[in-house]
Amino acid sequence: MLYFYQKMYFIFTMIVALTLSIIIYQVYLVQINNKSYNSEAPIILWWTPFGNDDKLRNCGNYQCYFTSNRSSQYEKQIKSFLFYGSNFQINDLPKWKSDKIPWGLLHEESPRNNPIFVQEKTLNLFTYSSTFSRFSDVPLTLVDLPGITELLSKKYFVSTKEKTRLMHTKNLAPLLYIQSDCDTASNRDIYVTELMKYIHIDSYGICLNNAELDKRLKENYLEILNNGDFLSFIANYKFTIAFENAVCDDYITEKLWRPLVVGSIPVYYGSPSFKDWLPNNMSAISILDFKDPINLANFLHNLSNNETEYNKYLSHKLIDKYEINNERLKMALNKNKESNKFGNYVEEFECFVCESIQKTEKTKIVDKKHYDCPLPKDPLTHKIDHSNWWTQQWILGKCEAKILSYSLQNNLTINIENFEKDKMKLYDKNEC
């Protein structure tokens, strides 16, 4: 019996010793972490880990320490919380104190990733933004455009005569369509389905598939969309259907830029203001300029058969030493002359926040201009599409935003089950 008690005492002593060791080690780590940055430098915490981590950065005349270590939220130097929109979770948020610790939102994606951001009540929780909108603090409008050099390059360019020859010898359609996301807020497939009735379209993706990719392109094609072979393949087509998955002002993706880079005329549907960013006024064709798919198809037929008129849309490829006349586009790209990479925008946003929190200027709040995505419309009728599942998500997002804003402003703990119940109550009563 004595041996049993001695053994139990020994085990108990070991557990206590181990627990104390863990606590001491954790305190040590916190101390080390605190010593790794200038104690006077403001701390900016990526609540959803994304940008720089545990790094002291110089931003102009200012300096900030960026981290994703949430223990930093209790430090007196904490000055801002940053969020990556796709990872924003309503039941995992810090306390909202916009006047003391402003929030910043970085989000280049469309609402399909997180519909709650289409609501102004959600946006108003933030002080700083970096979104696809030109009105955000650090616009991501052109993040998917490689640069001016690529726009003008003839690396993948195929002449109009060669494209016409391929249409006759290889039976290529005048239009190319490649999509494998068939459930979208823009409901793009409904328009393409109608357009197919009046003009030949080669559709290689899962959506509306009627053609097979070459084996070397078919395998994991989603991973090689910017591969040289794939770009050369796209360049063979006179037109490329470039429809975004959602319609938001300034939400422009590689769907527009890729055909422009290879020299295939984009037939575009998405941002209503996309023409503001084109190399020139005749670089792309908007479906909104046509009454219906029949009129669009007739226009494309005529353009395809008129080499002189067709080439006017490719002036940025055909004219040597072409000068882009779009000052807005040039100015935006010149800001990132060295590299138009996403990481550059992230660091620019970090520095914008770092500088802003240390200036005495009065802070503003993010509003709908920073993420303007109206209720989804039917691309054929241009009316709000209540049959579209995403329309319901927009409305539910409004309910979520209402509850979230109230909870944060009143410092209430969010229980996800109760949150969902309350959301559905508001939705059922049409009180969002």
How do the helices and strands line up, and which of them pair or pack?
Layout: H1 2-35, E1 43-46, E2 55-59, E3 62-67, E4 78-84, E5 103-107, H2 120-123, E6 128-131, H3 148-152, H4 160-169, E7 175-177, H5 188-195, E8 201-203, H6 215-218, H7 228-234, E9 239-243, H8 254-262, E10 265-269, E11 285-286, H9 293-304, H10 307-312, H11 315-318, H12 327-334, H13 342-357, H14 389-409, H15 416-428
Parallel strand pairs: 1-3, 1-4, 4-5, 5-6, 7-8, 7-9, 9-10, 10-11
Antiparallel strand pairs: 2-3
Helix pairs in contact: 5-9, 14-15
In brief:
The protein has 432 residues and is α/β, with parallel strands linked by helices.
Could you explain how this protein is built, in words?
The structure is a single chain. This protein is α/β, with parallel strands linked by helices. It has 15 helices and 11 strands. The protein has helices at residues 2-35, 120-123, 148-152, 160-169, 188-195, 215-218, 228-234, 254-262, 293-304, 307-312, 315-318, 327-334, 342-357, 389-409, 416-428, and strands spanning 43-46, 55-59, 62-67, 78-84, 103-107, 128-131, 175-177, 201-203, 239-243, 265-269, 285-286. The strands form 2 sheets. Strands 2-3-1-4-5-6 form a 6-stranded mixed β-sheet, covered by helices on one side. A 5-stranded parallel β-sheet has the order 8-7-9-10-11, with helices on both faces. The termini are far apart.
Taking pLDDT < 50 over at least 5 consecutive residues as the criterion, the unreliable ranges are 1-12, 20-36
Number of strands: 11
Dominant shape: globular
- What fraction of residues sit in β-strands? 5-15%
* Series of H and E elements: HEEEEEHEHHEHEHHEHEEHHHHHHH
Question: How many strands, which pairing sense, and closed or not: the largest β-sheet?
Answer: 6 strands, mixed
Given helix and strand content, the structural type is alpha/beta
In round numbers, the mean pLDDT is: 88
**Order of strands in the sheet with most strands:** 2-3-1-4-5-6
Task: Give the end-to-end Cα distance, rounded to a whole number of Å.
Answer: 69 Å
Radius of gyration: 27 Å
Helix content: 25-40%
